[in-house]
Amino acid sequence: MLIAHDLGTSGNKASLHSADGRLLAAAGASYPTHYAADTTSEQDPHDWWTAVVAATRQLLASSGVRPDQVDGICVSGQMMGLVLLDAAGEPVRPAMIWSDQRASAEAAALADGFGGDEAYRITGNRVAATYTLPKLVWVRDHEPEHYARATALCMAKDYVNLRLTGRLATDRSDASHTGAYDLAAGGWSAPLLAAAGVDAALWPEIVESTDVLGTLTPAAAAELGLRPGTPVVAGGGDGPMAAVAAGCVSPDSPGYVCLGTSAWYACTTTAPLLDPGQRSFNLCHVVPGLFTPTATTQTGAGSLQWAAEALSAEPAAVAELIDAAAGVAASDEGLYFLPYLIGERTPWWDPKASGVFLGLRMHHRRAHLARAVLEGVGYSLALCMQPLRGDAAGTGIDVIGGGAASDTWLALLADIWGVPVRRRSVTTQANSLGAAVTGLVGLGRADFAIAATLSPVEPEFPPRGTSAPHAAHLPRLADAYTALSGWFAGGAR
Asked: Which residue from 451, 319, 429 is spatially nearest to 28, judged by alpha carbons?
């Protein structure tokens, strides 16, 4: 058996899988995020470890599995963060996570000084505040005392792996989403690091996602309740792990959407897909030798959760809000929502963008607002698809993530996108499943082809003949952003 961890934005999900990848049990533990008006988004790496320990112990207790029955561990983690470590491997400051956008000025300076087009050609990612490299420059310039203490950096799952094994390394999938990885050379870009003026020695060793990184140390085993010497597979970033869970593990796999806190569209290719407009980005897949071009809207199902908390007396009333939204219209009545609650990536790459309702009238109630949120996320994902769909424009799309549990939302998305939408059976545990499959491959127990069998397609939602009106609404959303971009830049904080 294998234990997989999904180190997400809101907490850690742990899952126990059989030798053939089947889910046997699951547990979870949450941790807080510190947000501030200056786009600060920070977490304490110690909280990640505490959650991993708690979830592992819950998993063992609920399943009755003995430590000697666990053959390995593999971790999926949130990407684009920055964890700075001192010589003892301790964090010198809180982790800046993916949604932290304080490095906007640093990103702009790097793009101007090095050349944004050249950086995109090298890394497959535009120079933006969300990435690790500009975050590191921000710390150097704003917190020199922390930068001076740092001897290494890593991403979220790398910190957990360090606690598990005592070895610090990252994998290609996480490395490729830092803004500092050379896709062609397969290593850190010396010219980019030099242009940024950061210490190249801080950047960790790079391994394959399927490599056995090490084994559980006695200290880690004691905390987790597991056997010392249990193998730990390197694992990868949550985006490529989600691709595995969606069965998107070869170039002929259908593209997929993940409706998580953020949401994205991605596919699998043998080479990066570089968009002249730099709307999309390219990640190394956890499948060695492959890539997963991706385009992301910052707030996907997170927009719906926000709406439930803002519009309902009961914060947990997401399902009720969706039900109410099913019976009303929004865009067809001129009501729109821009889901830019923490800025936006594709296609605008604007950290100052804000969430907006447009077209409010006296008769609109919470159901209409909820409907606008559902549609707004769908339209944003349609914009994400534009640089990546190409010849696949008419084919269906598989959907995973927490938002995929809603039949109402999936049917609406089929209408907006104009193609059949299929729900994969594993939704909220998708990243854990990806980690489990990657771990089994790393241990020599399986190949990536098993992923599709572990999360088969559930009901298909065909377009209901209303795609043409939705297609007409899409340019209005783009026009709305264009009209408001100056206000975002000057007045939204």
From this structure: 429
Which candidate in 158, 171, 182, 238 is catalytic? 238
Provide the pLDDT for residue 264.
94
How does strand 397-400 pair with strand 421-424?
Answer: parallel
Report the SS3 class of residue 81: coil
Q: Poorest-confidence range of 62-76, 283-297, 305-319, 439-453?
A: 305-319
Model confidence pLDDT, tens digit, residues 229-257: 999 999 999 999 999 999 999 998 889 99
CB atoms closer than 10 angstroms to residue 306 = 16
**Among this protein's residues, is 238 annotated catalytic?**
yes
Q: Which of 74, 81, 2 is nearest to 41 (CA)?
A: 81
Residue type, 352: K
Question: Residue 118 domain-assigned?
Answer: yes
In a domain, 221, yes or no: yes
Rounded Cα distance between 361 and 347, Å, is 29
Give the H or E element holding residue 476. helix 467-491
Q: Is residue 275 part of a domain?
A: no
Domains: count for the chain: 1
Contact call for residues 346 and 371 (beta carbons, < 8 A): no
CATH number of the CATH domain containing 159: 3.30.420.40
Domain of 23, in residue numbers: 2-237
Residues 6+ apart with CB under 8 A from 289: 270
Each residue of 336-385: pLDDT tens digit?
999 999 889 999 999 889 999 999 999 999 999 999 999 999 999 999 99
Asked, for residue 76, whether it belongs to a domain, the answer is yes
